[in-house]
Amino acid sequence: MAKLSFRLLERTPRQVRLTAAGQLLRTEWSRLLRELHAVHRHARQISSGEVGSVRIGHVGAAAYGWLPRLLARFTAHHPLVHLDLLEVSATEAEHPLLTYQVDVGFWREPATNPAFLSEPVLVEPLALVVPQQHWVQAETFTSLAALRGEPFVLPALTGPSDYVQTLRDVFRQYGFEPRGTVTSDFSTTMLHLVAAGLGISVLPLAYASSPLPGLRFLELPHQLTVYLVWRREDNSPVLRHLLAEARALP
Predict the structure, then answer these.
(1) Cα separation of 89 and 185, whole Å?
(2) Residues 88 and 166 in one domain
(3) Exposure string over 104-118, b if 16+ CB within 10 A, otherwise e
(4) From CA 148, how far away is CA 96, in angstroms rounded?
(5) What's the pLDDT at 128?
(6) Do 42 and 57 reside in the same domain of the chain?
(7) d(CA 59, CA 82)
(8) Residues in domain LysR substrate-binding (predicted)?
(9) Domain that residue 152 falls in
(10) CATH number for the domain including 98?
């Protein structure tokens, strides 16, 4: 410690008191100690994942039920962590992770890039989506085969993604290729198009909780898996907490 070249104390016959310089040092040292303790506490919180941020990419259907439940559970346990959500097309899932736009994704297919890790977290049924006044009824509906002549609103079924392959396989089981005049990679857009009478669609049943009026959902005997995907080298403690919450969610 450096030797001070000035007096901190002054003595009188009755007392010892701080000099003006001593009073200044006491005030400033107290302030600096408080700041040092705050910095140390903040660093400890960052190291433990108590504070920080995580950017989450997700397919649209995840926002209707499962993802809100996960985020409610996560924020209850980690209220100081900031969450940033980005909805991503089911057919372009890996790109946001590769370009560091998101830290973790909830996609419809497992990771194919060796730079990623993935695991299934949710299995959900598919549903036939029709306008409210469509002729098909839940009581008499038996098979998609009865709808082979209907116009469908779907993503382009020529892509290589697992999601698209699942849809192709579904229609192949019923012996026809869907006829469509409108395609979209975003499910919310497809819902609006169906409600407007531009066709019918096959989408995850989770969308049945959408507030959009004018739609009916008929559950199909087919399922989709949602995968949790993240970068292999990412050791963020916040990410570890999110993974743990996702695995524990019923």
Answers:
(1) 6
(2) no
(3) bbbbbbebeeeebbb
(4) 36
(5) 96
(6) no
(7) 20
(8) 48-247
(9) 123-224
(10) 3.40.190.10
pLDDT, tens only, 102-139: 999 988 888 888 999 999 988 889 999 999 999 999 99
Segment 236-240 shows an average pLDDT of 88
Domain count, the chain: 3
Q: What is the pLDDT of residues 164-176, one digit of tens each?
A: 888 999 999 999 9
How far apart are alpha carbons 191 and 200 in whole angstroms? 9
CA-only gyration radius of the chain, Å:
29
3-state secondary structure 8-27: CEEECCCCEEECHHHHHHHH
Secondary structure letter of residue 200 according to DSSP? B
CB of 103 closer than 8 Å to CB of 54:
yes
Please say whether the dihedral angle defined by the alpha carbons of residues 179, 181, 187 and 192, taken in this order, is positive or negative.
negative
d(CA 111, CA 57) in angstroms, rounded, equals 14
| DSSP tag of 233 | T
Taking Cα atoms as reference points, which of 206, 91, 220 lies closest to residue 156?
91
Q: Is residue 116 part of a domain?
A: yes
As a whole-number percent, the residues of the chain with pLDDT over 70 amount to 92
- 35-91 pLDDT tens trace: 777 666 756 656 665 768 889 988 877 777 788 889 999 999 999 888 999 888 766
DSSP H/E element including 162: helix 162-173
